[in-house]
Specification:
Jelly Rolls; 26% strand; binds fe (ii) ion; eleven-stranded antiparallel sheet; alpha+beta
Length: 259
């Protein structure tokens, strides 16, 4: 059962019945690489989340990071122009998990057994656990004017995000579904076409309150620079095994500290 504290913060169709069976959405997720649950959060819930995120923002850590699309080391064995060596960048601000109050509805959603089991069914996983470190399980990400998320594949094979606030211009999520491998090998040629802007991906018009589940490990994705307003996106991060911490390097980059 959904905890009574949570009932009013979900959109009307997201009730006990809905969360009972996540596996019925699995096929669509596998096919499209993305699932969006529109108005997952109600207007009441959004109001609370916007206020909370707004109040926390002053404590956020601003980061700029550079990487290649595979989030791996640059590699001299490849030409300079190869996707292995092209420099992508991300600028954003972030509130780590330990600054999100224990009684926040974000913590309640994250910890809710019924929602966890919904994700397990949907993602066809045996287990989902929080991060061992105190910073990485839930993050609130802020993208202000000029902030962007450069093209990349995720390390994790699924990502769960909640859009709390949308910017008024820019900040568009764009992806290419399931294009990473060709004949079981990295498809560098196609990725280079993307980076050279020779092809256009699928743009997602997500709205405030939408929950998005995304297979980011095989689907390259970016968020274009915010041009006007502010975009606030929460990520719910789980691990398939217990006791996993985000790397110290990533914690330093995104949170400015390791604990
Ligand atoms: Fe990503």
């Amino acid at each position: 059962m959904i905890h009574s504290d949570l009932k009013s913060i979900f959109g009307t169709k997201y009730n006990d019945e809905f969360f009972k069976n996540g596996s019925r959405h699995k096929e669509l997720l596998d096919k499209n690489g993305i699932l969006i649950f529109n108005s997952f959060i109600s207007d009441v819930g959004l109001k609370i989340l916007k206020k909370e995120a707004g109040e926390l923002k002053k404590d956020s850590y601003k980061s700029s990071s550079e990487y290649n699309v595979y989030i791996s080391e640059f590699d001299d064995n490849f030409p300079k122009n190869s996707s292995r060596n092209r420099i992508m960048s991300t600028t954003k601000k972030c509130i780590p998990n330990d600054l999100i109050p224990k009684n926040s509805i974000l913590q309640k959603i994250y910890d809710s057994p019924i929602i966890r089991s919904f994700f397990l069914d949907l993602l066809n996983k045996e287990e989902l656990h929080p991060y061992e470190d105190s910073l990485s399980s839930i993050n609130i990400n802020y993208y202000d004017k000029g902030d962007a998320l450069g093209w990349h594949f995720d390390n994790s094979d699924f990502t769960i995000t909640l859009l709390v606030k949308n910017c008024s211009k820019g900040g568009v999520y764009e992806f290419f579904n399931n294009i990473r491998y060709k004949d079981n090998k990295e498809n560098y040629d196609f990725v280079e076409k993307i980076l050279d802007k020779k092809v256009k991906g699928t743009k997602v018009n997500s709205l405030e309150g939408d929950l998005m589940i995304f297979k980011g490990n095989t689907s390259i994705h970016q968020v274009t620079a915010v041009e006007e307003g502010e975009r606030v996106l929460v990520t719910f991060n789980y691990n398939e095994t217990k006791g996993v911490s985000l790397s110290e390097q990533s914690r330093k980059t995104f949170f400015g500290r390791i604990k």
